[in-house]
Amino acid sequence: MEQILPHLDSVFSIDCVLFGFDGKELKILLIERNEEPFKDWWALPGNIVGPDESLDQSASRILYELTGLRGIYMEQYYAFGDPGRHPQGRVITLAYYALIRLGGDKELRPISTYAKRANWLPITDLPKLAFDHQKIYDKGLEKIKRRIKHQPIAFELLPEKFTLTQLQHVYELVLGKKLDKRNFRKKIVSFGVLKELDEKQKGVSYRAATLYRFDKRKYAKLFGKEISF
Amino acid sequence: MEQILPHLDSVFSIDCVLFGFDGKELKILLIERNEEPFKDWWALPGNIVGPDESLDQSASRILYELTGLRGIYMEQYYAFGDPGRHPQGRVITLAYYALIRLGGDKELRPISTYAKRANWLPITDLPKLAFDHQKIYDKGLEKIKRRIKHQPIAFELLPEKFTLTQLQHVYELVLGKKLDKRNFRKKIVSFGVLKELDEKQKGVSYRAATLYRFDKRKYAKLFGKEISF
DNA sequence: TTACTTAGTGTAAAAAATACACACTATATT
DNA sequence: AATATAGTGTGTATTTTTTACACTAAGTAA
């Protein structure tokens, strides 16, 4: 986060790439800056780490201030600290990615003063970003691409109950490629971390799909044994 | 790195887990602290990031000061910043792992004042470490375990010319398990990144093994296609 | 009732992973 | 010169995993 620059030798901040999935597209939350430098540019949300916060707490706080939500899944992935990355001084920033399902619609809340507004923008069509935020975003996407192959993070982007087609859709968007339906189902079911529900999808004008849920218990029992996509 | 505490709100440092392989064991370089806190304890080498250094430059410098060597392979892997991790104030540290081959014997050089001495200690028998350095080390080992499966980092621990048995040994030590000789050879050769030399091992009192070299060109041609162990 | 749209399913072929044991070769020893 | 020693180097059969591929079933809308 870049807006406050106290007169210290260096500032330590956290920036978040918050990925959201609305059932159709993969988006990230960007804020439009209201202050120099990069006034009117889009930027990743971020902030300075408080003196008594842990790094994870700080990232949680930032996400809470943006969305009003607690308990968002997130993980730190890289520190950026080139001396020239901030025009006004030394700012070392630790990047987090975070994953959230969109659609509740009341996730966005009034945001702090350094931003005019925040917006969900599809990753297929991002504007130019302030600072080195393009680099930070790129690395974040790369990270979740890798991560989704081995860890059950796709479920963070979906509602609690979801169809296999929706799940496949998430994988396809993150990995950036089409997957074969039958092979996908075979594989994802074989991991044994999905619970098939008795329920069906509702409100669709075609055959309703079976709903599934991610079964944390079963996953815990795998005990580190890795999923491999 | 923990020894200097200027009166700032927070200090940003880098700590390094430098892994070395001497042909037999996997070791890490630890320093014995000469200052409070944790005087006389073993700790990971580290230092504060200078105002005009990038993060990687800072890590390189730390490694150079310790070993007199430049160009050591290294990579940042995690930031540790719990408010309580340093007894005397807020220190956020970014951890790097680094890999080096031992055996040249002149790698260690006089070190800075906060340490009495530096020593290579086998990872199978580490002492208690200062601060949260055990946690930092654990995560570093975990990281290279993961990384060695997909990236050609094993070669950083070996001399330029090595035998397949030595290479297998590195994999076994890092992964912490025995591998089948024939299957290992089949697989590692199938990646197509090794160049078989005309040379043989010397000075052994048994059948001399063929020497190999990591072929960077061939690896570059794979163009991101991942090795998978 | 028909048209439309997505759900859901199986199999054969190819590729990759695994398990497994012995003869070869260079040196050191007597 | 013969022998002991210690690590090198190799092949195959079996199992498992991955891939490619297309049609019927079910529900809704007209």
UniProtKB/TrEMBL annotation, chains A, B:
CDD domains named in the record: NUDIX_NadM_like
SUPFAM superfamilies: Nudix, Winged helix' DNA-binding domain
Domain (Nudix hydrolase): residue spans on this chain: 9-143
PROSITE patterns membership: NUDIX (PS51462)
Pfam families, per database record: NUDIX (PF00293), WHD_NrtR (PF21906)
Protein name: 8-oxo-dGTP diphosphatase
Species name: Pedobacter terrae
